[in-house]
């Protein structure tokens, strides 16, 4: 192998073999060969492209898993932030609306856009505001159903909303569908407050239906109006039998289990007495009419 002129006067160490130096130089020339460098660069580009496609496919798969097809229009959401559903239940006078407003105010103080909805059936204190029993107010949308909220509120305004509060949720028949869509598809935080049972201790509306959807469920209690123990139930003071009978302390009171059972027994006894008196009165009237 012929060395370049600059190596002619190079003096090898005594133990340095010429063949070792030639091998070393051959490796240097091979490594810095432009053709070899281009091939290495090409391989690097191919590998980078492969890795990019690999990670992009993973991201696309995870995105499609997190963003299901919207059943309302058949399209797939391009961005699906995580939504939440929080449910607050309990008897009347348990502080459900107070807890709802406290949570909504905390979200608002954190810089999130909030909106409140209540049923248009509830006109006890105000039409355009959620009002607690102690007089605390919060402006709201009063609606007959939840499905019309987005249209009335406006699509653009709805997109900017972060938190939706729903008071008196037991009056909304479409509560389940609205909460599911708002949290799962639109990424909203939905806070629901309502009665979990009616005056007969039966499921009231769709409130219990959304518990399987909920991130958290808070069961509040009141104080029994008769003994001051924890009250889990709502007792109706009147004889009306329809489920949806809106009223306040004039019609309802929170009671413990014992006083609920006793009260229902008293109500049943009173009804029986009234019915017997009614039957007796009818018989007396009938006898008087047929008498000569």
From TrEMBL:
- What is a GO molecular function of this protein? ATP binding
Q: Which pathway does UniProt place it in?
A: Purine metabolism; Pyrimidine metabolism
Q: Where are the transmembrane segments?
A: none
Q: What is its EC number?
A: 2.7.1.21
* Protein name listed in UniProt: Thymidine kinase
Q: What are the top taxonomic ranks of the organism?
A: Eukaryota, Viridiplantae, Streptophyta, Embryophyta, Tracheophyta
Q: Which family does it belong to?
A: Belongs to the thymidine kinase family.
Which Gene Ontology biological process is one annotated for this entry? response to stress
Keyword Secreted assigned: no
Query: What are the record keywords, sorted?
Result: ATP-binding, DNA synthesis, Kinase, Metal-binding, Nucleotide-binding, Transferase, Zinc
Query: What Pfam families would the database entry show?
Result: TK (PF00265)
**Reactions accelerated catalytically:** thymidine + ATP = dTMP + ADP + H(+)
Q: Which InterPro entries match?
A: P-loop_NTPase (IPR027417), Thymidine_kinase (IPR001267), Thymidine_kinase_CS (IPR020633)
